Amino acid sequence: MADDPLIHDPEGGLPRLARIMARLRAPEGGCPWDLEQDFASIAPYTIEEAYEVADAIARQDWDGLKGELGDLLFQSVYHAQMAEEAGYFTLDEVLRGIADKMVARHPHVFGAEVIDSAAAQTEAWEARKARERAAKALTGVLDDVPVGHAGLTRAVKLQNRAARVGFDWPEVGQVVDKIAEEARELTEAAPEDRFEEYGDLLFVMANLARHLDIDPEAALRAANDKFTRRFRAIEAALAVDGRRPEDSDLAEMDALWDAAKAAEKRG
């Protein structure tokens, strides 16, 4: 197995990656760390790799994106290898399943159906997914919203699903009013109730993002980046005098923050 030519073939493509993964998990001669892993232990890495793909796209790091997509693909191969070992399914079945799904959900591309707009395609896609859910005997509106999504993303998906059956505020102003109500409840809550109230506030904030057609995860990542950028500007300004943030005070750092903000706006 050590001399398997496919493993060393730079043109081996997906079969090469699958063979490498199988070798890493081989009971004899495999990697001890990889052999200890299971679906639950690998799942956090899968989520992390998906975020790193999104980060590379946000930074327009196209060379980095190439590597991150490879890492994410490897995660799929990893899970498929463990599934094959357990007798659940194989990588070939995964590939066949997604290909069949894409063909079935795009009859306007691979069949005779005519769809002339992205909006019509979205409506047809959701209708087809609803039929698939019914075929799987999923009767609840929220039955197949994955629990593994990031919190804000899952909140939006739950709200979208409920909105399809009319459970939704029709006006953005009503969502804003609810945010004010939840914020007030949080500030007035007893310590033991703050966790729940804070979750309620975040849930409604996700709903506002949905009504405004904003991806809340992307918006929060952008806010994180902005905070990082401006705080680094504070550090750089203090470093001119040989100081660090702990050598300053809030008033000075706040002024430096405002200066960084103004500099960004001048652009």
UniProtKB/TrEMBL annotation:
Superkingdom in the source lineage: Bacteria
SUPFAM superfamilies: all-alpha NTP pyrophosphatases
Stored InterPro entries: MazG-like_dom, NTP-PPase_MazG-like_C, NTP-PPase_MazG-like_N, NTP_PyrPHydrolase_MazG, PRib-ATP_PPHydrolase-like
Entry keyword set: Hydrolase
Record domain NTP pyrophosphohydrolase MazG-like: where: 37-110
GO MF: nucleoside triphosphate diphosphatase activity
Gene Ontology biological process terms, A to Z: dATP catabolic process; dGTP catabolic process; dTTP catabolic process; dUTP catabolic process; response to stress; TTP catabolic process; UTP catabolic process
Pfam families according to UniProt: MazG (PF03819), PRA-PH (PF01503)
Name of the protein described by the UniProt record: Nucleoside triphosphate pyrophosphohydrolase
